[in-house]
Amino acid sequence: MKQKLCLTSFSLAELEEYFKKTGERAYRARQIFQGIYRRGLTALVAFTDLPLALRNRLAGELTINPLELEQAASSADGTVKYLFRLPDGFFVETVLIPAGDRKTACLSTQVGCKFRCAFCASGLNGFKRNLSAGEIVGQVLALKFGFGHNLTNLVFMGMGEPLDNLDNVLKAIIILNEERGLNFGSRRITVSTAGVIPGLKKLQDFEHQINLSLSIHSSSDRLRSRLMPINRKYPLPELVAAAEDYLRSGGRQLTLEYILIKDLNDNLYEAEGLAAIARRLRAKVNLIAYSPVPQLNYSRPEAAEVARFQRWLEERKVKVTVRQSKGVDIAAACGQLAGKFQ
């Protein structure tokens, strides 16, 4: 049986081209695109503005959303973690993070992760595959139309390394940004990376001015290699130099993500090194207290220890925000829920 094509993997231009090749007029593509992204339609039979014969034919060739909800877990702080089953039986997580007037969707880009950061649950079961652009877009559609969340921001910080699946990530951003669709502003989209330098160089030529976050987690090359094996391939000094090139090419302001782990990277030496990198890149620091993973032997710092590290950075003229950990009571750290099902 021929596998159906996923409509959420088509940009509007690609969908118009598809319709032209099948003898249909391009405006039919626009009807479908707007039906998906403006009306939240999830089945081709629901497109009552299309002739019935066309709907039936397209239903045999195309599908809309490849995600099926397996489980949802709600936290006392308002965070909701959604676990989706993919057509091949793998699972992927998406997290809704509310904060004041903001509703942020934390999106996954891969099933598992090949980079195996020592403190992260995403890579515990190994890497399975990349998500398609349609599977990434489908997470946004599920939260917006399936569960009624009026999303304000998107962050590519869930399962997987976004720059290791860069083509599908960038295509998903183009689809989400399309004016006739969700029209999601580039400046409300953030892509995070553990430091895939070739992807960072490729990102310089991307047409949309998205935000970029670098996961640092240690200013020491030795400790960073222990925590993040990717540092052995792309050492921190090379990553900082690549980030400078990105900024010179016209990239927007960087954010340095720093997960604070008790008695490991929460000392003054690390703070001084991190401050030096932040000043060099004119970057702000997003400080995050570690969310414990039961299988891993790392501890969460006390609030006073987080505040002390923040003060050290601010004394060194660095702009710092402390991101409050969300969903601790529902194991909202990346990959924990999917790991139970994978």
Task: Tell me the CATH architecture of the largest domain.
Answer: Alpha-Beta Barrel
> What proportion of the residues is helical, as a percent range?
25-40%
Order of helices and strands: EHHHEEEEEEEHEHEHEHHHEHEHEH
CATH class of the largest domain: Alpha Beta
Distance between the termini: 26 Å
Rounded radius of gyration (Å): 21 Å
Instruction: Count the DSSP helices.
Output: 12
Shape by Cα distribution: elongated
State the CATH topology of the largest domain: TIM Barrel
Domain tally: 2
Main sheet summary? 10 strands, mixed
Q: Would you kindly provide a written description of the structure presented here, covering whatever features stand out?
A:
With 342 residues, the protein is of the alpha/beta class. It has 2 domains: 59 residues, Orthogonal Bundle (DNA polymerase, domain 1); 274 residues, TIM Barrel, CATH 3.20.20. The protein is built from 12 helices and 14 strands. A 10-stranded mixed β-sheet has the order 3-4-5-6-9-10-11-12-13-14. The chain has a two-stranded parallel sheet with strand order 1-2. Strand 10, helix 6 and strand 11 form a beta-alpha-beta unit. The longest helix has 14 residues. The chain is elongated and about 70 Å long. The mean pLDDT is 93.
Question: How are the SSEs ordered, and which strands pair?
Answer:
Blueprint: E1 5-6, H1 12-21, H2 26-37, H3 52-59, E2 62-63, E3 68-74, E4 80-85, E5 91-99, E6 102-106, E7 110-111, E8 129-130, H4 133-146, E9 153-156, H5 166-177, E10 189-193, H6 197-203, E11 211-215, H7 221-227, H8 230-233, H9 236-248, E12 254-260, H10 268-281, E13 284-289, H11 303-315, E14 320-323, H12 336-341
Parallel strand pairs: 1-2, 6-9, 9-10, 10-11, 11-12, 12-13, 13-14
Antiparallel strand pairs: 3-4, 4-5, 5-6, 7-8
